[in-house]
Amino acid sequence: MVFSKVVFSDFIPFPTKLMHTTQTISQENQNQNQNQIKTKMEVKRRTVRSLVAKLGSVSDQTRAEALAELRLISKHDAEIRPVISDAGAIPYLAEILYSTSYPAQENAAATLLNLSITSRDALMSTRGLLDAISHALRHHSSSTSPDAVQSCAATLHSLLIVDSYRPIIGSKRDIIHSLVEIVRSRNSPPRSIKDALKALFGISLYPLNRHQVIELGAVQPLFSLIVNEGRVGIVEDASAVVAQIAGCEESVDEFKRVSGVGVLVDLLDMGTGSSDRVRENAVSALLNLVRFGGERAGKDVREMGLKVMDGIADLAENGSAKGKTKAVALLKVLLEGNSLVSDSRVDSRFDYLLNQSCSF
């Protein structure tokens, strides 16, 4: 049998050509995809520019339709939010918050909330935006719709995620006052109260804002919610704000006026059935009172806190990592150097917890 001689070099060009062809097709597909993306974005830009231009129309119907469409697309398309901001929509949206039309207010406020997810810098750099939000919040019980109030408060909460914006927003006393009044009012819808509490919490994360929140009357309505509100979520949010504003010297006297230490201690009683989050907030508030109020606050905390040591110990054992740490810290405040507690009681019940490291 005769075998033909195989020359392997004869086969080299074929795969090389195939590879080159495949690479060419792949590059063409990639270019085509990029062109499609560019075309798609250009269509979005043209659409947005047209809608924003209509916000300046003399026709109420044209403005209303454009506003409703901007709200819709900003909700469902994350890519288009920066496009809307860049097209100059924010000043129009801010101006519309002064409108007496509920639908217009609601669409403008909701669009601002959607934009705050990705375009916080654009919002904060828009002159008059915070004043417009303040106006909407200030008229929460009269000319501003509840939905617009909620979106405006939620927009503030979104902006307050950025540390550098907290002192700026906190310097707007009228905003803080309006948020406090929303929390205070018996006619405020639960959703409005929750959004206002979240905004107050964000403001209070900046230490120098806390005395402003207290000065503008937040303490009494916050504790009123904690004591009287049956909805767990609102109690959790209210106690979170209380935990923050306890972190300043001004809190001591204001908390005394509403028997604040007693209320916080009651939240730690096992019999009240408070959620873990509420109990952790109560512990944080008591620790902040001791830290910033000195012996004036420390004496009350130590005397009243002894009644709920079991509840604090339970949190130290079963709470979140942060809750455990703070509960142990509060146990140390209550037990170390407290003449009302016998050494045998400390050794037998809490010694193993006190030996844990803690910081607050």
TrEMBL record:
U-box domain: residues covered: 49-333
Identification of the protein by name: U-box domain-containing protein
Keywords: Repeat, Ubl conjugation pathway
Domain of life of the native organism: Eukaryota
PROSITE patterns associated with the record: ARM_REPEAT
Gene3D superfamilies: Leucine-rich Repeat Variant
Record PANTHER family: ARM REPEAT SUPERFAMILY PROTEIN, U BOX DOMAIN-CONTAINING
ARM repeat coordinates: 88-116
